[in-house]
Each structure stands twice: as structure tokens, then as C-alpha cells.
Model the fold of this input.
Amino acid sequence: MSGEAAILLELSGNRHGHREHYVALLSRLLDAAPRRPGWSLLVDRRPILITAIEESLLLYAGLGLVRALLGRRTAGLLMRPLPTVAGRSTRLRTKRWLLHLLRRFARIQTLTILPFSLEPRFARIAHGWIHDPQFWDCYAEDTPPSARQPGRLADAIRQAAAGRLTCCAIGGQGVAKGFDLFAALWNTDPALRSRMLFAYGGVVDPRQAAAAEAFAAQGGFARDRFISDEELFDLYAAADLIWCCYAPDYDQASGIFGRAMQLGIPMVVRKGSLIHRMCIAEGLAHVALDTEGGGLPAAALDPAAIPPREPLERAARRGLLQAGESLARLHAALGLAPSAPAAAILRAASLTAAPQRATTGP
Done:
């Protein structure tokens, strides 16, 4: 057995997008060794955290049950809880039943990555919840967001905006991320183009190629390619709004949304979505688009109605509090004492919360 206090189990080899950073962050804060499935895990005495139980729910259930009988702890993060509680297919009903069954075992801890307050039905299938690490990871790093300096891509976007407000869509661009609506708003509304610049950075789904071509032809700022971490922050630095108006079947936590939250940048969200509820619950600056009627809700993007950026100090306080709450719940689920990096964050979160307790009472 190696020296780490826990095991971070990845059920697949997928480390695309934010996944590599996500695994590294949890490994460091939990003092956990990343592992792939293997028979030795059944009897390993260390607690196991499974990073995404959707990748193999049966493996999670089987591993957890055997380990529970042996007195071992197993926890798993449920990344997309809404389809599980709301779905009507046989597959989702079975998944819901199995997760509900696992709630009977104290040594198996299923955690959603969104609070139960956003959707009370989550409590039927999970023991508890944390805040998505992508909502607070910047404040668990040695270099806070305020230390980053914008680069050439941010300058290019600001130059193209020529004084207009800028709405940025970041990362892979497809229907799930709402690129079809993003492009349609820009392509069909000259009044919108006169008062705002739409910009995106990330690879466009080939099925949206025609919309992307029209977007560029109408003067939209397009970077249809892989975006480096430095360029990613440039897009945030140049943005007055971050596009998070995702498709109804992509109703889940989002790293793009989380990074905007940590930087205090207003977001465009779909009215009624989970992240819209998160905006309301956390008092986040946002614009909610009503996409139910079938029309293009461009009127909601009037510059006069767009809120300003949140002070970074307030965003940092929220990020630290979310980090502290999440790490406390993770360590409790795994039966672990906090690692040194986690303990430092918990102390900082406690100090951040203290003034609020003094003014708001118990």
C-alpha cells in the first residue's frame, strides 16, 4: 500500500476538457492516489472516491457493496443528477432505484455536485452534496485569478468590440452548449450586432459549421480551434457576459459557468435551468433567456439591462466558502482527517465566514 490516505478512482480513461485539472485538484486536496479499476480495490483499507459514477453505475454499486460488507468506505460523485431524478426511461428508473437503495448503506456515500436546495429530489438518490469543484477550484490554487494578466487574444477581442459590450462563448461549441442559439441571435439581429459583440473560442461541432460560417461572415469574433489555458482566461478577461445558455438536455453544472462565477462575470443562462436557480440562490449577476416560446430572445440582451461585474473580493469570499464546505463534506464522507492543503483552505474559509456569522447571527 502506498502512502496516500485515499484512492481517487477513475472508471474510464477520459481526461478531456477540465478533467485532468479536476483529478489533480482532488488528488492533492484529499491526499489521494489516482487509480483505475482493479480487483485489489475490493479489499484496500483506504477510502475510495469515484470521480464520476455515471461512467459505470454497476461497478460503483458492486464495489461499494462489497467494500461496505468489509467495513470499507466508498464515495462517488454524481455529475448529472437531474436526468436521474426526472427521467422516465427504464434505464433512468433503474438507476434511480439503485441509487435510492445504496442510500441505506452508511459506508457508501453518493454526493451530487449541486446543492439539494436547487432540486430537492436529489436527496432521494444521494446521501449529500458538494459544490462542483469547478465553482471554487481557482481559490484552492496558489495563484488566484487576480494574479493573471490578459494577453493578446483579450486585446484582439476588445479591439473588435470597438466599445461595444462583449458576450463570449467558451469551449467546445455545439447544440448542447447552446451554440445554435448563440449563432442564430447574432446572425439574424442587426440591432444586437450594433450594440454588442459576440465572440467564441473553441472547436465547433461540424454539424454547426454552416451557422459558424454565417457567424463569421456577419462580423462575429471566431476562434474555431483548441483554446489554451492562457487564451481561456483571455476570453473571460474580455467578456462582459459569458454564454451559459445551454440546451434543456444539458441541464447540469458547468465549468464555464463555474469559472465565470469565480471571476464575478455576469452569465447568460437558460431561464429555469439548474444554473439559473444557482444564480438566484447565490445572488449572481446574470441574464436569463426564455427559450420556451421558440422565438429569439435578443431583447433581453439590451446593454442597459446587463449587470456589471461582481467585485472580485466578493467572488473570492464565495469561492472560499464553497471550497471549505465542499472539502468538509468530502472528508466526512471518506472518514478522513483533512490533508495539509485542505486544512489551509478550511481555515481560510472559516476566517471568511466569521465576519458573516458576527453580523447575521447563528
